[in-house]
Amino acid sequence: MRHPATSADDFHCIELMVGTRDVGALYYKVCHRCRIGYVGKLSINEEYQGLGLGSSVLAAAHEEAPAPDYCWWTSHQDGSAQPFWQLIGSRTGAGYQFATESICPHVGE
Ligand SMILES: [Zn+2]
After folding, report:
1. What are the tens digits of pLDDT across the range 46-58?
2. 6 Cα: distance to centroid of ligand 1 (angstroms)
3. From the CA of 45, how far away is ligand 1's center (Å)?
């Protein structure tokens, strides 16, 4: 099945709300041609980390590009974030390797 080309220049954004409070956001892109997902940024307020919010917002993104059919990448993260991405990667089968260069011609940084 062919998907129409998406306008790949804009990040999709899912905002994380707890009650009426905006506690974080996920910015990502999906390329249906190359079957990849790319997380540009996942930010969660410090006091809301470790509650599973990150994995649930990523699960919402995966509905658009389900692993392992789609291979997911993330931008380079600082050292403290790496165990999180390794956990998510092994739990979802999405991979979540760190993108060090452009991963497809349609999704860049
Ligand atoms: Zn592509």
Report:
1. 999 989 999 999 9
2. 10
3. 31
